[in-house]
Design a protein that fits this description.
heterodimer; A: alpha/beta; 8-stranded mixed β-sheet; 3-stranded mixed β-sheet; 10 helices; B: alpha+beta; 3 helices
Chain lengths: 248, 89
C-alpha cells in the first residue's frame, strides 16, 4: 500500500472540514489512494466537535467580534482553537482493513508514528487514551476519527506555538472542563511544542513526513482538482452555514 | 420544564443531557466531546431517551439507548441514563 503525501494548499476552515468528507468518501469509493494530508489555514478558527453545543464551547460574542470562523467537524471529540502557523494538523485517510477494529487500539496505532517523530525532535510526548497526545506538562494535541464504509479518517491537531491566552478568550474551556481555579488550570492543560524544542514548525512537519515515509511506502501527491471543487461547494452549502455549525 | 446535567466520564469525555419535560420527557438533547459511529445515529440516540415518564427507571433508559444501532465511544448508555435522570431530578 502506497500513501500519497499532500503537503500543500492553504484553505479556509470550512473548506478544510469539507475536504475531510470528500476525501473519506473518495477513498471508500476506491477513487483515492491512501493519503496523508497536512493542513495550512488562512485565519484563526475553531474546529468544533461534531456533537458539541456551539454556545457551550465558544465565547459567542468574542468570536463574532473577531471574525473567528467556528466550524463543526464531521468528527466527534472536543473543540480546538487553531491559528495559521501555530498548530500542526494532518489527516490520514486509509482503508479500514489497515486499521485495528478496536477503536482504542486504532487511536494508539495511528498516533504511534507521529509520537515517534516528535520524540526524535526532542519532545517528551506519549499517547494518552482515548485520543490525546500528551506532554508531562499538558496536552499537546488530540486526534479524532470517522469511519465511512471501508474507509477511516484519522485527523490530529497539535499546538506548535498556540497563543493559549487567546485560546482561553475564544473557547469556554475554563468554565467547561475545570471546576475550580478555572483559567490557570485550563492554561496548564495545554502544552505547546515551541516551549520545549528549538525545531521550527516546518522542521517538525519535515520530521513527521520523514518518519511516515520510513514506516510506510509514501510518495508526494496533490489534491485532485475535482476534490477541491467539491469541497468548496460543500463549504458554501454546509460548513460555512449556521445551520450546520450551530445545529447544537 | 427544561433542565440539564453533565456527566464526566473517567477518561475525560463530557456528556451533557438537556431535557424538556412535564410528566414525560418530550425533548432530549445530547451534546459533548464524545464519539459516535455512525455520527448519524445521534438523532436516534436522543429519540431513545424521549417519551419516557419522569419516573422512568435507569434500567429502562439504558435498554432504550442500547437498542440503538450505534457505537458509543468515550461514554456508554449508563452515562446517558445517569445524566438524563440527574437533569430531571
Amino acid at each position: 500500500m502506497t500513501y500519497r503525501v499532500i503537503d500543500e494548499g492553504v484553505y479556509s476552515e470550512p473548506v478544510q472540514q469539507a475536504l475531510e468528507g470528500v476525501l473519506i468518501e473518495r477513498l471508500d469509493a476506491g477513487d483515492l489512494e491512501p493519503t496523508l494530508r497536512f493542513w495550512y489555514r488562512e485565519s484563526p478558527a475553531v474546529a468544533l466537535g461534531r456533537f458539541q453545543a456551539y454556545a457551550d464551547e465558544v465565547a459567542v460574542d468574542y468570536v463574532e467580534e473577531h471574525d473567528i470562523d467556528v466550524v463543526r467537524r464531521l468528527t466527534g471529540g472536543g473543540a480546538m482553537y487553531v491559528e495559521p502557523g501555530a498548530v500542526i494538523t494532518y489527516s490520514l485517510y486509509l482503508p479500514r482493513e489497515a486499521v485495528a477494529d478496536d477503536i482504542e487500539a486504532s487511536y494508539a496505532e495511528l498516533d504511534r508514528w507521529a509520537i515517534d517523530a516528535l520524540r526524535e525532535v526532542g519532545l517528551d510526548v506519549s499517547h494518552e487514551p482515548l485520543n490525546d497526545i500528551s506532554h508531562p506538562d499538558g496536552k499537546i494535541g488530540g486526534a479524532a476519527q470517522l469511519r465511512k464504509g471501508d474507509a477511516v479518517l484519522h485527523h490530529t491537531t497539535m499546538s506548535y506555538d498556540l497563543d493559549t491566552s487567546e485560546m482561553l478568550r475564544v473557547l469556554r474551556i475554563g468554565e467547561e472542563k475545570v471546576s475550580d481555579k478555572a483559567i490557570e488550570s485550563a492554561e496548564k492543560r495545554v502544552a505547546v511544542m515551541s516551549d520545549y524544542v528549538d525545531a521550527s514548525r516546518e522542521e517538525v512537519i519535515d520530521a513527521l513526513t520523514e518518519t511516515f515515509a520510513d514506516r510506510f511506502e509514501a510518495e508526494p501527491g496533490r489534491l485532485p482538482d475535482d476534490v477541491l471543487d467539491e469541497a468548496r461547494r460543500r463549504a458554501v452549502e454546509t460548513f460555512a452555514t449556521d445551520e450546520w455549525n450551530r445545529q447544537l | 420544564m427544561h433542565d440539564s446535567a453533565t456527566v464526566k466520564v473517567p477518561d475525560g469525555k463530557l456528556v451533557e443531557v438537556a431535557v424538556t419535560y412535564d410528566d414525560r420527557l418530550t425533548d432530549v438533547r445530547v451534546t459533548g466531546d464524545f464519539f459516535l459511529e455512525p455520527p448519524e445515529s445521534h438523532a436516534a440516540l436522543e429519540a431513545a431517551l424521549e417519551g419516557h415518564p419522569t419516573d422512568v427507571s435507569r434500567e429502562t433508559l439504558v435498554e432504550a439507548v442500547e437498542a440503538v444501532d450505534a457505537r458509543l465511544i468515550g461514554f456508554d448508555a449508563g452515562h446517558l441514563a445517569d445524566a438524563t435522570l440527574e437533569a430531571i431530578r
